Amino acid sequence: MVDLSEEQADDLMYLRKVYLSRRGALLIKRQTHLASMSAQQLPHPSDSLGSLLDFSTVMKEHAMQDYKAYHQLCFAMGYGVRYH
C-alpha cells in the first residue's frame, strides 16, 4: 500500500472525481451517437456508407478523448504524488 499524506490523498480523490466525470460525459455522448445510429432507417446499403464513415469518425474521436483523459490523469497522479 502506498503511504500518502492527507493532501495527496485529497488530490487523488479529486483527480478521480474529475476523471470519472469526464468518462461519464464521454459515455453519454457515445450512447447518444449509438442510439441515433441504430434509429436511422436507410433505404439502401450505399446510403449507409456515409453514415457509417461519419459514425466511425465520431467513435474514433471519442476513443481519443477517452485516452487523452486517461493519460492526463496518469500524468497528474504521478507528478502530483511524487512532487507534492
Main features:
84 residues; mainly alpha
Structural class: mainly alpha
Rg: 19 Å
Q: How many separate helices?
A: 2
Order of helices and strands: HH
- Looking at how many chains there are and whether they match, the oligomeric state comes to single chain
Proportion in β-strands: under 5%
Q: Which consecutive residue ranges, at least 5 long each, have pLDDT under 50?
A: none
What's the overall geometry?
elongated
Describe the structure.
The chain has 84 residues and is mainly α. The protein has one domain. It is 87% helix and 0% strand. It has 2 helices and no strands. The longest helix has 39 residues. It is elongated, with a radius of gyration of 19 Å. The mean pLDDT is 81.
Could you give a short description of this structure?
87% of the residues lie in helices and 0% in strands. It is built from two helices and no strands. The chain has helices at residues 6-39, 45-83.
Helix and strand topology:
Layout: H1 6-39, H2 45-83
